[in-house]
């Protein structure tokens, strides 16, 4: 499932209003999360987002970092296209995270018991590291902390 390409602008600092005719087919089929392709001039980025109804309008968040990555200025119009989110967690999973988690069954089972939102939050914590070895190291720390009973996000990546 995918939408037609449509034009939008950022409203406020980081929100986009999505036309009803674009959002409703996804929401009616139970897809409140979508894969998004955003394009402006010669740049294109892909990411995952949640569709939310806010004061009668469908909206989605569009962070300052994504705006910067596309080279957007305030009031610039750009193109979006939605695709059905077929990912397991609703976010791109780093290879390093996946490999470490699959090697530690106990930690993986604990991770799988969390809500989808908490899982995404943890994955985002690992994704922010650019260095591959750092992602591996932080995922190893995460696994140990999960097995020790740590559940607070701000404590999950702290070493002993």
Account of the protein in words:
Helix content is about 40%, strand content about 25%. The protein is α+β, with helices and mostly antiparallel strands. It has two domains: about 5-85, AF2212/PG0164-like (Elongation Factor Tu (Ef-tu), domain 3, Beta Barrel), CATH 2.40.30; about 95-155, no CATH class. It has a seven-stranded antiparallel β-sheet. Helix 3 (about 95-105) packs parallel to helix 6 (about 130-145) and helix 4 (about 105-115) crosses helix 6 (about 130-145). The mean pLDDT is about 90.
Order of adjacent strands in the largest pleated sheet: 4-3-7-1-2-6-5
Low-confidence stretches: none
User: Please, what is the CATH homologous superfamily of the largest domain?
Assistant: AF2212/PG0164-like
How is the CATH topology of the largest domain named? Elongation Factor Tu (Ef-tu), domain 3
SSE succession = EEHEEEEHEHHHHH
CATH top level of the largest domain is Mainly Beta
Mean pLDDT: 92
Distance between the termini: 46 Å
- Sum up the overall morphology in one term: elongated
**Total DSSP E strands:** 7
Largest sheet: 7 strands, antiparallel
- Which architecture of the largest domain per CATH? Beta Barrel
Helix residue percentage: 40-55%
Radius of gyration, whole Å:
18 Å
Number of helices: 7
The domain count comes to: 2
Note the beta-strand portion.
Answer: 25-35%
């Amino acid at each position: 499932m995918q939408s037609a390409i449509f034009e939008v602008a950022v409203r406020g600092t980081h929100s986009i209003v999505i036309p009803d005719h674009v959002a409703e087919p996804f929401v009616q089929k139970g897809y409140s999360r979508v894969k998004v392709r955003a394009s402006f001039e010669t740049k294109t980025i892909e990411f995952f987002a949640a569709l939310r109804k806010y004061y009668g309008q469908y909206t989605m968040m569009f962070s300052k970092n994504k705006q910067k990555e596309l080279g957007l200025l305030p009031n610039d119009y750009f193109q979006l296209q939605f695709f059905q989110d077929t990912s397991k967690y609703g976010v791109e999973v780093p290879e390093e995270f996946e490999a470490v988690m699959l090697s530690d069954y106990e930690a993986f089972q604990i991770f799988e018991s969390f809500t989808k939102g908490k899982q995404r939050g943890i994955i985002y914590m690992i994704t922010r590291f650019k260095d591959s070895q750092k992602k591996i190291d932080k995922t190893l720390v995460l696994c140990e902390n999960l097995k020790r009973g740590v559940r607070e996000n701000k404590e999950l990546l702290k070493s002993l």
